[in-house]
Specification:
With 374 residues, the chain is of the alpha/beta class. The protein is built from eleven helices and 18 strands. 36% of the residues lie in helices and 26% in strands. Strands 5-4-13-14-15-12-16 form a seven-stranded mixed beta sheet. It comes from Pontixanthobacter aquaemixtae.
């Protein structure tokens, strides 16, 4: 009989992990609590390191064929002055698919028959040398490996870390808009930083733009103020393409940013956490989804050659240091962008402006080095 794998969560991490474990010869069941696979969010930066992971899972070319490539990255001020770039990242093989597109590609490669919908997991534990999953309807299933891929509020992730997600000090909104008469330059990606807020605008291909807005906040409940009329009014004071992008926006998705410290472990025995269930990171480097994909890629490699009880130790050996660094760096970037002390913040922005472009490009591309899992 084939080895079995149960996966909690049918988002990007869960679907990618399902593909990975099937490639390793496991019979896979993904348990998704929602009655349908409905994409949340707008678009995702899939940098070259994660594109290599998608290639390993057999999905890379499908993304390249349908998503916009990221070519030029830059950081500017609210007054239009440039702080960094534009940096040429066209050789990094990086793309900006919508979340809906990436999720559909992963689901097609996994096979919808391997996803059980409307299946909320009530508990999970180790029993008789295997992982056991108990659904809220009372059903109990066992598996050789259990993978928790159910996001930052994962129950298993909380048990492993002993830490609740904490509000990171800023709220925001994101969305997609259609501007066919005013397309952005191909591969355009730019952030603009104000005093305590920032906008980002990206070319999403075919006249579409992906945008986000973030601002400092004293509490997570302030996310209620992230309405499209208020953000559009704010955007009118910013340089193009911010103003024109928000003028074309029809809807937005409000978000309150939460975070956890870098993880110390990625699981326990045959229970493994991946993605935001293991290492949630603030959205400041575009690596959240990328590291979920890398988790799955590493699992695909390790599960092909190791017995189930040896997969977690090998995964932690090859992944833990890397994901911890991304969690730390994304938190530091969030602190720099939303630092309450304006003098310190001005010094940080000044350091960006003084760094030569070649050094900026080298630093950015160094973060996108494709790892080798074995």
């Amino acid at each position: 009989m084939p080895r079995t794998c149960a996966i909690i969560g049918g988002g990007i991490a869960g679907l990618a992990a399902g593909i990975a474990m099937r490639k390793a010869g496991f019979a896979v069941t993904v348990y998704e609590r929602a009655p349908a696979i409905v994409p949340m969010g707008a678009a995702l930066s899939i940098w070259g390191n994660a594109m290599a992971g998608l290639d390993g899972l057999g999905c890379g070319d499908a993304v390249r064929a349908r998503a916009a490539q990221i070519r030029k990255v830059s950081l500017g001020r609210k007054d239009g002055r440039m702080l960094m770039g534009p940096m040429d990242v066209s050789t990094s093989d990086s793309f900006l698919p919508t979340r809906a597109l990436l999720q559909q590609i992963l689901l097609d490669h996994l096979g919808p028959e391997n996803v059980r919908l409307d299946a909320a997991v009530a508990d999970a534990n180790l029993h008789d040398g295997k992982a056991a999953v108990e659904l809220e309807d009372g059903t109990i299933a066992s598996a050789d490996i259990l993978i928790a891929a159910d996001g930052i509020h994962s129950r298993i992730g909380k048990v492993l870390s002993g830490i609740e997600p904490q509000f990171a000090g800023y709220v925001g909104a994101l969305g997609l808009c259609n501007t066919p008469q005013q397309p952005l330059p191909s591969g355009f990606a730019r952030e603009f930083w104000g005093d305590d807020d920032r906008f980002g605008v990206f070319d999403a291909g075919q006249g579409m733009r992906y945008w986000f807005y973030m601002r400092s906040a004293g509490r997570a409940a302030d996310v209620a103020e992230m309405t499209l009329p208020k953000i559009t009014e704010c955007a009118a004071q910013w340089p193009d393409p911010v103003a024109s992008t928000l003028a074309a926006a029809q809807e937005c998705i409000p978000v309150a940013i939460h975070a956890k410290p870098p993880p110390k472990v990625l699981g326990n025995g045959r229970i493994i956490c991946i993605g935001d269930a293991a290492h949630p990171m603030q959205p400041n480097q575009g690596q959240g989804a990328c590291q979920s994909i890398e988790d799955a890629w590493a699992l695909a490699v390790l599960a092909q050659r190791l017995p189930p009880e040896q997969i977690l130790p090998a995964l932690e050996h090859q992944r833990l240091k890397r994901v911890r660094s991304y969690v730390r760096e994304s938190a530091l970037m969030g602190q720099a962008a939303h630092m309450p002390n304006r003098f310190v913040r001005a010094a940080v922005l000044g350091s960006f402006a003084l760094t030569p472009r070649w050094a900026q490009e080298r630093q950015l591309l160094s973060r996108l080095v494709v790892p080798v899992y074995h």
